[in-house]
Task: structure prediction
Amino acid sequence: MKKISLIGIVLVFFAKFSFANEVNVFSARHYDSDIQLYKKFTAKTGIKVNIVSGKDKALQKRISEEGQDSKADLYITADAGRLGAFDAKGMFQNSMTPIIEATVPSNFRSDNWTGIAKRARIIYYSPDRVSLSDLSGMTYEDLANSKWKGKIVIRKSNNIYNQSLVASLIKNNGKEETLKWAKKLVSNFARSPKGNDRAQILAVAAGEADLAVANTYYYALMLSGQKGKEQQEAALKVMPFFPNQNDRGTHMNISGGGILKNSPNPENAKKLLEFLLTKEAQQHIVNNTFEYPMIEDVEPHDLVKKMSKDFKQDLKTKVGDYKKNQADALEVMLLAGWK
Amino acid sequence: MGNKLNIWFLSSLLISIIVAIPIVTVFSSFFEPTGEYLSIIKNTFLFEYIFNSVTLLIGVLSATFIIGVGCAYLVSFYKFPGSSFFKGALILSFAVPAYIYAYSLTAFFENYGTAFSIMKSLFGEGDYNNYIPKFDGMFGAIISISFSLFGYVYVLTRASFHYQSQNLLELGKNLGFSNKKTFLNIILPASRPAIVAGLSLVAMETLSDFGAVSFFGISTLTTGIYDAWIAFDDLALANRISFFLLIFILGLFVLENFSRKKAQYHSHTRGNFKSKSLKKLTGWKSFFAILFCSIIFFLSFLFPVTQMLYWTLIFPKHFIDLNIIDLLSNTIILVFLSSFLLISLSFISNYGNRINKNKLLDILTTFSITGYAIPGIILAVAFISFVSWFDKNIIYFFDIKPIFIGSIAGLVIVYFVRFYSLANNGLKSGYLKINYSIDESAYLLGYSKLKTFINIHIPYLKNSVLLIGILLSIEIIKELPITLIMRPFNFETFATQAYIFASQDLLEAAAAPSLILILIASVFILITSRYILKDK
Result:
């Protein structure tokens, strides 16, 4: 009797009926605001959105282990290098539609994946200890300048945003040159790398360092007060600086997604991608996550706009190329002693 | 009889095979070539993994030894205001998983964190960040893991102290030993097996910790396995690191089993057990005892709870957005299914052992309880590799992957492997209390084996089953790495929800699920403490 009921219970959970009108999203972005967005999509189209959230690599792993049986339709993550690497394993299928091609600049997509929102990885400084004239014309390359000895904080080398940044430097300056740069940068560190991007900005506010490297949305998030009053006040003690304005522009990255090779509902996945690029969805994203919009006629959040009226984005280095140099980037950083 | 033997034998065999899958998978792939990708880097990593794991281990073992034995000593031998309160309160630390402790530590001490807010509200504006110590990195990990695990040392040592006869204390007194000398030269050596058993459990849990070390960005063998498998896409390397880790753990496992047997031996020498008259502490000694216990209780339990509560209150939006009903029902489903499976199969194996007394069966059972020593990550990775292999090579005509990967079934099976020892050992100790003569009397009365089982064993074992159920619930509620890897679509538990928020730099959103997790686990622990602390 016990056994029979046991088998019964197990069978119920084995049986996973799939609904025709659904789309299965594996997402490494787990903002509550994204979930609200999916609900809007369902309300509009009647397509149910199922989500597995988790760390990107773990999700990728599951998708590739599941192989042909994978139920995943759409994979969404931050960082172009990750999307590129997953694409290089042949995990995506063509994700383009005329609408996507018309709205997303070619620099921020490939055939198999597209950016959904943008972010810049920039420098933050303490206006108390660093004058704007010290920074005039500053580039990522200048972070290696010995005048910053003991004054810079940045995350660990295992951080993907750092890997993409260094990958873009390798792309522009070559591996050897970048290794020299990394060695000098490491000697400029104010402390052994630790913490997330926000912790780097806080370290500048707290006087542990004069310069920090971090993504744009973290700063706006702190300014918004959503992280509490203390962090809001701390953010006010730090100023953003957009590097490389006189040459190729500031390093850009994306969060984006692609339709998976074995997707059971590719049409629904396309609809969801297109929806995420509508004006309504983009406005929702930029207002909640403080990223830059991917499409033309949407304005970033006011706090983000205030950081820089208009800055030159690095459109010369395709985000799709980060993947090629990420392994070299990690090697360079580790060789340089970047923990 | 012959027929019966086969059924029991086969079911025990089956259980052992399920549990053996991950171990065999790891060992069999040790000799597979690992990928070429960044081979120099991998070598440097391996050294770093081992170095960090060892550092972590030494730190945690020292801390848990001092905290666990210190607390156990105070509450077992002395009476001071609050001593009976602390006796139970100190085990509440089991409710706080190391990763949640890590979140609290960071939230409190980071630049502009809670400590800063407190200073500011007390003394006004000021530059306090430089004066607030930073508990992060390796140090933070050691603290987080120690406070969440010292309970093992505490509980086992306390039990051993409890059973030490008064004679030992009197012996010390007669020899003219001071209290300190009696403790160091007599009590401590006599309790060594219990302490070693507690420390081995701590060591195994420390080596398997994933949440806290990955939060602090420390690469250990366990995160190394995860990285190798996931970042380098190199299952063979993951399995190779697992192999190193398993050898480490195997040593601890043997040590723990050996010590536990010895500890049992000691705890059975109760022949001339005189109930101890606890020494009453007065004056500054009493003050220090209270202080020590209060600090440990505060740091291990009140501190993380208060920090999480504080954040839940000042960021109420995240609490309101939290889908508590879903998280709760998911947790209940997992607890219910896993407990049911674990307890049923433990019954089969224990009952089989009881009526058969077969050597081979004994060995198989011993083998099948090794799962708890193996980190959850290894179990999950190995299970997925095994299912993929099985699907490709054995039953390629039918897809089993969707049934076992990313499903509740797969999740429950891996839980089963991980927690089987808990259920099996719990039931075993319950069975030891039922004398064989009771079975024989029942047979004489014409009861069949099944009837004996249902009418006699089950009522006797009701309490054991309840206790096992509660212990399993606590473990499953806190479990992180297996759930993270194996769970299905739209399926979160309090643990995964907290982890995902935290990994997105949304610690304040992780507070609410963490708090609920701690509260539920605390309630279960308070119920269990009636059993654990039963002083007969």
Chain A touches chain B through 55 residues (CB under 8 Å). The longest helix of chain A spans residues 32-45. Chain A has 15 helices and nine strands.
